[in-house]
Specification:
binds manganese (II) ion, TIM Barrel, binds sodium ion, GGDEF domain-containing protein, about 250 residues, 12 helices, about 20% strand, binds guanosine-5'-monophosphate
Length: about 250
Amino acid sequence: VALESSLRAALENKELFLCYQPTINADSGRLIGVEALLRWTNPGLGKVPPEQFIPVLEEMGLMPEIGEWVLLTACRQVRAWQQAGLAPLRLAVNLSARQFKQGDIVEHIGKLLRETGIAPRMLELEMTEGMLMEHTESSGATLNALAALGVRISIDNFGTGYSSLPYLKRFPIDTLKIDRSLVRGISTNNNDAEIVHAIIALARSLKIRVIAVGVETEEQKATLKRQGCGQIQGYLLSPPLPAEECERWLRARS
Ligand code: G
Ligand code: G
Ligand code: MN
Ligand code: NA
C-alpha cells in the first residue's frame, strides 16, 4: 500500500525513467542494439528495484499505460540517436502480461512504428514464456499479427519457466534470451552449462537467435562464444545506463 501511493506520486512527479543496456555480437563485438529498462528513483525510497515496483504497477492496472509510455519514449530515443548520426540500433522492449493482452496492442504498435519512423524489424518485443502459455489461442493470433507488422518477438528469461517446446515452432519467435540465472552458473555449474548448451543447440536447429543475458565475466563470454551463442548482454559490456550516459557509451564505441 505504501508502495502504491508512492507510485501514484511517482507518475505525477515523473520519477520513472528508462535506462538502456547494449547488446553486442559475441564473435565480432559489433554493437547490435539496446534494451530499454524501466527505472524508478524516489526521493524517500531511493532506487526501487523493478522486480518490486513493476508487479505493483501491473496489479494497479497501470502497466498497459506505462508500457505504452516506455515504448514511445524508447522509440523516440533510438530515433533521436539515429538522427544524431549514430548507427541504427535494434530496440528491445519488455512487454507486461496485461499490456500483451490489451485488445489494441497490434494497432498500437503499428501506429507507434508509423509515428516514430522506426523500421519494424528494428523493434523487438520481449515476452515471457508464461505470457505465451497463458492464453495460447489469442496469444497466437496476437503474435502472428505482430509478426505480420514486421516486428521481432523474443522470449525473455528463457530456461526459467515451464518451457513448452512446441510453442517455439508454433509461434513466430525470433529470439530466445537465456536467463541470467543460467548464465551465472555457466562456468562453474555443470547443469547450468549443459542447459545453456542445449538451449543454444535447440535454437540453432529451429533457426532462432540467442542472446545471453547477465554476462559478467570474460570466462562466461568465452564459454558462450564457444557454444555458439550469437549475442550477449551484461555488466561485462555495460550496465543499463540512463539515456545521456548510454549515448556517450555508444559514441565512444562507434
Ligand atoms: O533491469 P532489471 O534487471 O532490474 O529488471 C528487472 C525486471 O523488470 C526484468 O525482468 C525486466 O524484464 C523487467 N522490466 C524492466 N523494464 C520493464 C518494462 O519497461 N516493462 C516491463 N513489463 N518489464 C520491465
Ligand atoms: O528479465 P530481463 O532480462 O528483462 O532483465 C534484465 C535485468 O538484468 C535488468 O534489470 C538489468 O539491470 C539486469 N542485468 C543486466 N545485466 C546484468 C548482469 O550482467 N548481471 C546482473 N546480475 N544483472 C544484470
Ligand atoms: Mn528483458
Ligand atoms: Na523480463
